[in-house]
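Interim report to the steering committee. The following record documents the input for Isocitrate dehydrogenase NAD-dependent subunit 2 (376 residues).
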Amino acid sequence: MASNILRRTFATSSSAIRIGLIPADGIGREVIPAAQRVLEALPNGPKFDFVHLDAGFEHFQKTGTALPQSTVDTLKNECHGALFGAVSSPSHKVAGYSSPIVALRKHLDLYANVRPVISVKSASTPNQKELDMLIIRENTECLYIKSERIEQDPKTGLKVAYADRKISEYASKRIGAMAFNMALTRQKLREQKPLAQRFWKHAPRVTIVHKSNVMSVTDGLFRETVRAVKESNPELYSGVDMDEQLVDSMVYRMFREPEAFDVVVAPNLYGDIISDGAAALVGSLGVVPSANVGDSFVMGEPVHGSAPDIAGKGIANPIAAIRSAGLLLEHMGHTAHALAMYDAVNAVLADASVLTPDLGGKSSTNDVVEAVLKHL
């Protein structure tokens, strides 16, 4: 998947992989440099060139622009991939501001947000359930098209807010195809492990999340289109099971029996909520990575926010960012190096002696990075 990324060529004599670094706000400025250190330390790893780029709410406050056009142009014309830190989007409306990460997904056509949620048992989490779930979220549509308006109710004279929701057959079809393809890819990787080491021991499965019992038009189209991906490719996907969950029952069942899910595919808003909630199953948002994936570009992004309450204290958890850098490499075809990063992180989590406060430890960001480097 996304194997054509490294075929992009630029006006440079360097043979290095050029990665755009966008720390943005808050702890993004701490965890992205941490991920960079691990990339640079990979044994026999590829050569990297890192390009530092601006974006974020703090940049908006200084300049009036949350996403400079120069950042977009550099990513499109000079970079093979990117790492994005975190953004401090305010909960209230700020005139002229819109989220730079949402805009980047649209500018670069990063139509899939890929979020693995994997458990690692340790002495500090002896009761953690074994799960290996991949949540694939459509990244360009749904309510996040940000088409909102306020009108006045002629009867009451009070304000009424509306939000348009977009679900297209085109976007639903390609996110469905990615879900089924990644189910097959995950199965191939599992088959390389002894059965005892596999959390998921069944045929690969794609679970379609929707609410078409209420939203019969929009969610109905999403459901029908994703189902059609498998039904129209019976030979390719014959080994992949398919089921469905209404979004409310999905949340309930995910917390009760998360081990029941393999690959989950959902529209933008549902996928956002489900994947953030799933982080609670593995201890913290600080350990859950994601990758924004398109056909010719990948941008790694830790799931956590900017955490202004701990920004600058040196205690931010860098694991999500490091894993996101691993996802970046994985989707660029450097699977062995990505696995080395995952294994190093898992070893640190399993040992449980070096953990940041969000996981119940007392270690610093740098302590965790040093422990990961040691296990590399």
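The chain has two domains: 1-112+283-376, 129-135+142-282. The committee is asked to note this result when reviewing the revised timeline.
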